[in-house]
Amino acid sequence: MRNYTKQYINGAWVESESGKTIDVVNPATEEVFGCIAKGNQADVDKAVQAAKEVYVSFRHTPVEERQAMLGRIIEAYKARKQDLIDVMTLELGTPVTKSEKVHYEMGLKHFQAAYDALETFEFEERRGDNLIVKEAIGVAGLVTPWNFPTNQTSLKLAAAFAAGAPVVLKPSEMTPFAAIILAEIFDEAGVPKGVFNLVNGDGEGVGTPLSQHPDVRMMSFTGSGGTGSKIMAEASKDFKKVSLELGGKSPFILLDDADLDEAVQAAVAKVVNNTGQVCTAGTRTLVPEHLKDAFLEKAATEMAKVKVGDPQLSETEVGPIVSEKQYNQVQTYIQKGIDEGAALVYGGLGKPEGLTTGYFAKPTIFADVDNQMTIAQEEIFGPVMSVITYKNLDEAIQIANDTKYGLAGYVYGKDHEKLKKLARSIEAGTVIINKAPRTPDLPFGGYKQSGIGREWGDYGIEEFLEVKAIAGFYQ
Ligand code: NAD
């Protein structure tokens, strides 16, 4: 059992003031495998106070010092590779290979991207006799979701540290152990006390007091729109800055000149990756009308190859859904798809054969989906593909943008002029053409209800900075 009932505050592991705990469940076995502190207002107050005390000195540390600190974090992070992989496989249910190649690597890349960004990042700019200075905003509250335990935390932490902002982190209570290892990594790397504080607990007990705290100057949140809106409402009371990374319902648009085999593989991967629990999942698959039958046949064959099962096995590609609640939500959406008249082509309700224990869902394909159906408009957060047909490029663009979200878009085909037209037309923070890699130096964030602000690399650092104009500095 992993019982970590302490909080990391002011450079030390301390007992939570609440004396209460939250169980953490392994979604592949449905068994409790550990617990964390159920933090409260008093824990938050202590953590914010510690961060506040170190704010001025951390803000003024030379950039080289903060960069060196990120360098030490990178080394300490690498040294804990196996522990991070093990813990994410237990708490999130990601197959071991994905825990390594996706989750572990993404966390590492964000620290590296922040380190690299500091090589050239301009914190000061002279304009005539005047100076513009960018400096850390103050104590930042970070609240993160469960679906990418190292990625979501590391990208915020790397940016805040690079900017010189001390933080209080509240990770998801469903996947808290990766963040506990991060705390140990920062301790090992000599992050000054007070700069990083970890308060475990739930949204009500820790997230709300953090959003309300008068000494927190910024809330950086990743998660659902409902929670984002609550945090924004709390933050608005004393005009805290907010950075919100929320949900998505991203289109994957297939051109009619695409290599169909390759495109089908890419489309299926965009749906099943991380068991569909990805904010940028390309789950609205837009296919030219005349290619519908050929696409569906190949997509069903491709889905059938996806190995769902025990995340501890190296051949497994897709693990369970993170929790019973999320599993039930996926089932409800599949039922809605059936009820609203979409054609179930593959998968469907219930668990895959032979997987009765664990929150395993069936990779699923719906055809004849109208973009107004619930399964085309709402985020399912499970491995469910909705195939929608289009007649021409203008209609594809219209369907792609007919959503409250705007997080990502994928375009696949050969005619580069058409691909570029689509990429410029999609209203989303990220568009990926074919297999182009999405590197961590590119900004990440959403249009419309997918969020406010941008993260990753230098754009992420900007989020944690205030801008000061000093007139006459050079007179
Ligand atoms: P969630 O909103 O339920 O929880 C996210 C975090 O907020 C958790 O740590 C939770 O404890 C905390 N929280 C809950 N209520 C709170 C409150 N009132 N005040 C402050 N904090 C509170 O989201 P989730 O279920 O963990 O994650 C899934 C959602 O996250 C999906 O909608 C997904 O699209 C979104 N997401 C977005 C991105 C992105 O970058 N855009 C990335 C990953 C996930």
Task: Give the helix/strand layout.
Elements: E1 2-4, E2 6-9, E3 12-15, E4 21-26, E5 31-37, H1 41-59, H2 63-79, H3 81-91, H4 96-120, E6 124-127, E7 130-136, E8 139-143, H5 149-163, E9 167-170, H6 177-188, E10 196-198, H7 203-212, E11 216-222, H8 225-236, E12 241-245, E13 251-254, H9 260-272, E14 284-288, H10 292-305, H11 324-339, E15 343-346, E16 364-367, H12 374-377, E17 384-390, H13 393-401, E18 408-412, H14 416-425, E19 430-433, E20 451-452, H15 457-463, E21 465-470
The structure holds nicotinamide-adenine-dinucleotide.
InterPro entries: Ald_DH/histidinol_DH, Ald_DH_C, Ald_DH_CS_CYS, Ald_DH_CS_GLU, Ald_DH_N, Aldehyde_DH_dom
Active site: 245
GO molecular function: aldehyde dehydrogenase (NAD+) activity
What would you note in describing this structure?
By secondary structure, the protein is α/β, with parallel strands linked by helices. The protein folds into 2 domains: 2-246 and 449-470, Aldehyde Dehydrogenase, Chain A, domain 1, CATH 3.40.605; 251-439, Aldehyde Dehydrogenase, Chain A, domain 2, CATH 3.40.309.10. Helices cover 41% and strands 21% of the residues. The chain is built from 15 helices and 21 strands. It has helices at residues 41-59, 63-79, 81-91, 96-120, 149-163, 177-188, 203-212, 225-236, 260-272, 292-305, 324-339, 374-377, 393-401, 416-425, 457-463, and strands at 2-4, 6-9, 12-15, 21-26, 31-37, 124-127, 130-136, 139-143, 167-170, 196-198, 216-222, 241-245, 251-254, 284-288, 343-346, 364-367, 384-390, 408-412, 430-433, 451-452, 465-470. A 7-stranded mixed beta sheet has the order 15-16-17-14-13-18-19, sandwiched between helices. A 6-stranded mixed beta sheet has the order 10-9-8-11-12-20, with helices on both faces. Strands 1-5-4 form a 3-stranded mixed beta sheet, with no helix packed on it. α2 (63-79) runs antiparallel to α5, α4 (96-120) runs parallel beside α5 (149-163) and α9 packs across α10. Nicotinamide-adenine-dinucleotide binds at residues 143-147, 152, 170, 172-173, 202-203, 207-208, 211, 222-224, 227, 230-231, 245-248, 279, 379, 381, 407, 446, 450-451.
